[in-house]
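Collaboration report, partner site 2.

Our partner group contributed sequences for two proteins of shared interest, and the home lab folded both. The records are reproduced in the order in which they were received, starting with the first partner submission.
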Amino acid sequence: MMRIGIAADHGGFALKARIAAVLKAAGHEVTDFGALQLDPADDYPDFVIPLAKAVAGGDLERGIALCSSGVGACMVANKVPGVRAALIHDNFSAHQGVEDDDMNIICIGSLVIGYALAWELVKTFVDARFTGAERHRRRLDKIAALEREMKTS
């Protein structure tokens, strides 16, 4: 089983609760970064940034970030060095993003897809494994080099 974090603003609040519950029922250790109550005025960075830091720091193996479209959650998650987040709304990308690109946070728009597809995508994401192929490692090394370069400039 896996250590997984989940975060959502008001836009993904209801979907977050459902996804977290089924992940726990499947035996995963789930850390909920909020929102812990529905507040239409909350801001996705307040929940996604702590999630992204925990994934990048190795405290969690994977993360799930939700908002209405998934776009804002994805943008802020990718600002944290070491995070490889992607907005996913199809099954192929849910596994290929992990297998080839070592994606560690899946971002989903709760107003874009329904619960059944969201759960299928999360299961696919969680079950996928990075292949470690040389060409994929080479590409990830280039991303890591860019992150280091941006820290020093």
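Second partner submission, folded after the first:
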Amino acid sequence: MQHEDAKQWDKLLAPLVGLGGGLIPLIAGFDELFDWSPGFSLPLKIISLVVILAGYTLASYALIENRFFSGMVRIQSDRDHKVVSSGPYRWIRHPGYAGALLTYLVTPVFLDSLWAYLPVVFLTILLVIRTSLEDRTLQNELKGYKDYAKQVQYRLLPGIW
């Protein structure tokens, strides 16, 4: 669904993230078909599955906790948009992106494809850019977000950024 109040830059970035997410299994499929990569061990696949589930859990927790969670970056003035600082937002400012990133980073292992890391690199760069732009937007346009950002220091990766 397109929103008129969505940020112009996100009208480009959001579909690119969606495309990148679809490229991971597509490339992994070609990798399997043409036998490009050696397989990963069962213990690594099990660990990757646990991390995938953790990523989905974190992203789902963010979605449940934040009634303003949206697929497009926008200030939801029509819904009295407020800062959410509970749930996973106590630890990081963008837990939905963090959960997605966790999932993207280990999916190639689960799918036995080193080549699937190509779109993962692309997605990681896109998510860092999108997180940065969204955070800047929220600090500039959402009342109370600057104070929240002082309390919750990390945007995407606790202890790092």
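Feedback sent to the partner group on the second submission included the following. The first helix runs from residue 8 to 34. The chain has a mean pLDDT of 94.
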